[in-house]
Amino acid sequence: MRNSVVGLAELTAARGAEWLAQVRAADSTASTLGGSRLTLDYKSGWREPAAAGKAAAAETEAILI
Amino acid sequence: MRELLSRTAGPGSLEKISLLFVPAFNADGHERVGRWNRPNQNGPKYGLANDAREPQSQPRLRQGGYAGNAGDAGPDQHLGSADMRGFARDRRRGLRAGRFHSSGPVNQGDPQLRASGVRLRDELIEKLAQQGSLPLPFYPDLFETDNPRSGFVLTVYSPRFSTGYFRSATASRSWSRPTPGSLTRSACR
């Protein structure tokens, strides 16, 4: 855990400015999406915790790896 | 956190970034998520740290002093540890003390940001591997939740994690063999 926190802090310090520029470019692109057809919601194969006594179920087809 | 503040770890990092630590401050929502947990209260489905971008979480988060600003947000890191005994028993998979990382956007989200999402994940797990961990580049969600031999499910995050909103998110879990002290050591490093 300690190494994860420190590692991400180091990476963010090194690359944060670059990431922010990419995010702002993506936001700028997204600002031109008006009038186009967009996906506003989706279902993933992410499985929420199951109710007691029942198996967790994926909502969509899953890929076995 | 203490080491970062004292500059004995990641020297120079805090001169460039602001690090916001949000504890799992509603442990009931974080550890006991379910429809029938606190059913008569607003937001029983949510862990405030985990579902920070859900509208139901926002008032409580503001009370806690947490104020997310998408325009200035860097990566969001979700931390946890697990005593995954099923993995540990299945030695043939080579899964022992270690940790895994997943991050977004990698398999979903803004196509312009996926390349940096993959790079962030790969560079972070490389750092951990150099320090002796056995990091994985995916979230090892068992196909059958109680059967380590059933394989893993690889999928995109649920919309409820809002990984598209804060743009970049990582999940980090530690696990270890269930020997005395091993989980503690793994979780601390």
What does this structure look like?
- The complex is a heterodimer of chains A (65) and B (189).
- In chain A, 45% of the residues lie in helices and 3% in strands.
- Chain A has one helix and one strand.
- Chain A is flat.
- The C terminus of chain A is likely disordered.
- Chain B has 189 residues and is of the alpha/beta class.
- Chain B has two domains: 68 residues, no CATH class; 117 residues, no CATH class.
- In chain B, the strands form two sheets. In chain B, strands 1-6-2-3 form a four-stranded mixed sheet.
- Classes of the chains: A mainly alpha (65), B alpha/beta (189).
- At the A-B interface, helix 1 and strand 1 of A face strand 1, helix 5, strand 4, strand 5 and strand 6 of B.
- Strand 1 of chain A pairs antiparallel with strand 5 of chain B, so a sheet runs across the interface.
Top keywords for this entry?
heterodimer; A: 65 residues; mainly alpha; 1 helix; B: alpha/beta; 2 domains; 4-stranded mixed β-sheet; two-stranded antiparallel ribbon; 6 helices; 18% strand; globular; disordered C terminus
